[in-house]
Amino acid sequence: MVSQPTEVPATQALDDVFHALADPTRRAMLRSLASGERNIGELAAPFRMSFPAASKHVRVLERAGLVRRRIEGRSHVLRIEPAPLAAANEWLRFYEGFWTDRLDVLDALLRAEDAAGTKPANGGEET
Amino acid sequence: MVSQPTEVPATQALDDVFHALADPTRRAMLRSLASGERNIGELAAPFRMSFPAASKHVRVLERAGLVRRRIEGRSHVLRIEPAPLAAANEWLRFYEGFWTDRLDVLDALLRAEDAAGTKPANGGEET
DNA sequence: CAGTCGCAAAACCATTCGGTTGACAATTCG
DNA sequence: CGAATTGTCAACCGAATGGTTTTGCGACTG
Fold this sequence. Notes:
The structure is a homodimer.
Chain A: H1 12-21, H2 24-34, E1 38-39, H3 40-44, H4 51-63, E2 67-72, E3 75-80, H5 83-93, H6 96-102, H7 105-115
Antiparallel strand pairs in A: 1-3, 2-3
Helix pairs in contact in A: 1-4, 1-5
Chain B binds a DNA duplex through helix 4.
């Protein structure tokens, strides 16, 4: 039985936001933008990748609506746009009862680290 | 060789969690699991994709630590594991001040929807 | 025992992703 | 003007994604 598409209510926006957040480079860029506006060169500087690669990451953030670009002369100035983060947060809040009910967050973080497959040979990197 | 990647503090767990959440099928599966345990067949049923495809989605959720598998006879029973969601929520909370300061959440959701696929018509917001 | 059910594993395929290099456009500055 | 700055675009590449079909295996059932 084929039935209809049933689920998946066309949440393309959330797809793009979570996909944008699924890359450490892009998350680091957002952190950087949290301190203020940056142009592409400044955003790309901390990473050892090529300039166009960083530029592509910026475009992914842009497509997700997480940053907004303002062209100023030859410099493209990026500003963080928190709205999609609020949307992602709203999605997560649906499950808030689950983790506040059943686990404490500290244990939660450790379990997430463990289940990811990485070898936690070093100490905790987060408090 | 990774060679001390300057930034990007090795948040593989967060990578996996956000990547798992970046797919509408997997998000729908989590919603389903929020109502209780399900085996793979029940989880796969709402979608028109093949069984192995759904099974792969489950494995992605599993790798992110978002679900736990318990084999019961020939049935693999999945249970939601909220810990990684708490980790993701914790990451997002860093930016909470941004959207609570500058936008109200309702507007935020609308903008997130809009900014996804369409070119922002630039309504012009400030402050 | 034979068959069906629930699921995994493997092989394969098209697309996307993240990265590179090279060429080029536009703006600023000497 | 000519050169440097800032950044895009296009082509290309290897690896990962997301999907398929086929095969097989352990667990139940008639």
